[in-house]
Amino acid sequence: MQELEEQIGFSAGQIYDYLSSNNGTASFSKMKKDLDLKGNFADLGLGWLSREGKVAITKKGVSYSVSLKD
Fold first, then answer.
1. pLDDT confidence of residue 70
2. 19-23 long-range contacts, Cβ below 8 Å, gap at least 24?
3. Domains in the chain and their CATH numbers?
4. Rounded to an integer, what distance in angstroms lies between the CA atom of residue 6 and that of residue 50?
5. pTM of the full predicted structure?
6. What's the CA gap between 29 and 62, in Å, rounded?
7. Averaged pLDDT for residues 29-49
8. Is the predicted pLDDT of residue 2 greater than 90, yes or no?
9. 70, 68, 10: which is closest to 39 by C-alpha?
10. Which residues have C-beta within 8 Å of that of residue 19, sequence separation ≥ 6?
11. Contacts of 11 (CB under 8 A, 6+ apart)
12. Is the separation of the CB atoms in 47 and 12 below 8 Å?
């Protein structure tokens, strides 16, 4: 179980770094494609960051945008 948590935490770190280098905002689908996270790790990592209050998720039409909170 700890290995899974480490993978989720690593994915969260990749997402955070990606958003930091992209002016703090990206579409979820582009971010997922660019990071090429396997399985559900993009979803799980984003959930981790959301739970920690580090990201905001907004819906625009049928797509979602993710941004870093100040």
1. 76
2. 19/55, 19/66, 19/67, 19/68, 20/68
3. 2-68 (1.10.10.10)
4. 17
5. 0.90
6. 11
7. 93
8. no
9. 10
10. 25, 26, 31, 55, 66, 67, 68
11. 37, 41, 42, 44, 45, 48
12. no
pLDDT band for 22, please (50, 70, 90 cuts): confident
Where does the pLDDT of residue 27 fall: very low under 50, low under 70, confident under 90, or very high at 90 and above? Answer: very high
Q: CA distances (Å), 14 to each of 24, 40, 45, 49, 68, in order?
A: 13, 14, 8, 11, 13
* Mean of per-residue pLDDT scores for the chain: 93
φ, ψ of residue 59 in degrees (nearest 5): -100, 130
Q: Which amino acid is at 3?
A: E
Residues contacting 25, CB < 8 A, separation 6+: 19, 65, 66, 67, 68
